[in-house]
Amino acid sequence: MIYSAFNDRMDILAEKPSLREKVRMIQSAAKKAEWVENILEHKRFEEFVYAPRL
After folding, report:
1. What are the pLDDT digits (tens) for 4-52?
2. 14/7 Cα distance (integer angstroms)
3. One-character DSSP codes across 1-54
4. For residue 16, which phi and psi values (nearest 5 degrees)?
5. Is the alpha carbon torsion for 41, 42, 43, 48 positive or negative?
6. Which range marks the domain in which residue 43 is found?
7. Number of separate domains in the chain
8. Residue 8 · residue 32 · CB < 8 Å
9. Contacts of residue 46, Cβ cutoff 8 Å, sequence gap at least 6
10. By C-alpha distance, which of 43, 40, 31 is closest to 6?
């Protein structure tokens, strides 16, 4: 996911970004991936807590 977001960003820029720009984009993609992971983890926890007990 991080690699994909990074490549998408590279296509948009269409120029050679500086190392600082690359680092910033990778950090941004990593933060988004972590956010998605946290949401999915929370959803699994909710499903566990609210799952009907058989």
Report:
1. 655 666 666 566 778 888 889 889 988 988 888 888 888 877 776 776 7
2. 11
3. -HHHHHHHHHHHH-S---HHHHHHHHHHHHHHHHHHHHHHHHHHHHHHHHSPP-
4. -80, 110
5. positive
6. 2-50
7. 1
8. no
9. none
10. 31
Query: Cα(49)–Cα(32) distance, rounded to whole angstroms?
Result: 26
- pLDDT of 54 reads 57
Token digits for 36? 């998605």
Could you give the CA distance from residue 36 to residue 31 in angstroms, rounded to a whole number? 9
Q: Which of 11, 8, 4, 1 is nearest to 34 (CA)?
A: 1
Alpha-carbon distances of 50 from 17, 38, 44, 53, rounded to whole Å: 47, 18, 10, 9
Crossing angle of helices 19-50 and 2-13, rounded to 10°: 140
